[in-house]
Design a protein that fits this description.
The structure is a single chain. Helices cover 83% and strands 0% of the residues. It contains six helices and no strands.
Length: 173
């Protein structure tokens, strides 16, 4: 929300528009790492000669995206429909990882899994910390450059929280 307010909130783009846009972008941002991993796993499956299995996973993922997006959209509106994308990517990653592991093309070392979980935990802590800070310092009615100091403080807080948590996770791993 702070980023959207600084970049877009002016003229006829209201604070409510900023809130709704930020909500949708946050849901889409959740799906980005999953979609990146999905792309890597599908290319790996194709290179391993598992093209038919990867195609079936892609078609199922498309069905989950359409069906899940439609169902969640009816229940929760645009945010629910957007969440269908993240659900679809998660299903696809799970199925592709299972396909590759079952055929002996995916094996993760324990240390890699621990580091990845630590970084995911650091990102979650950063998200919670920045959300708490944003709620403690509510946005004013005006966006644009007037909201930039708040955004700068929230970004700095996020960097600090993530950095500290990632260093701690690295030492624990």
């Amino acid at each position: 929300e702070p980023i959207v307010a600084v970049l877009f909130q002016r003229g006829s783009f209201s604070a409510e528009d900023s809130r709704m846009t930020a909500e949708l972008l946050a849901l889409l941002a959740l799906s980005l790492p999953l979609q990146g991993l999905e792309r890597i796993l599908s290319a790996t499956a194709a290179a391993a000669g598992l093209l038919a299995g990867a195609e079936r996973v892609a078609l199922l993922s498309l069905a989950v995206c359409l069906g899940g997006g439609a169902a969640l959209g009816v229940l929760y509106g645009p945010a629910g429909a957007t969440a269908g994308i993240a659900v679809s990517a998660a299903v696809s990653v799970g199925l592709l990882a299972t396909l590759l592991a079952r055929h002996g093309h995916l094996a993760l070392e324990g240390r890699v899994v621990r580091v990845a979980l630590g970084l995911a935990g650091a990102a979650a802590l950063m998200g919670l910390g920045v959300t708490a800070a944003a709620q403690a310092w509510p946005a004013g009615p005006h966006g644009g450059i007037a909201a930039a100091p708040r955004l700068a403080v929230l970004v700095a807080a996020g960097m600090g929280i993530y950095g500290a948590a990632a260093l701690l996770a690295r030492r624990l791993a």
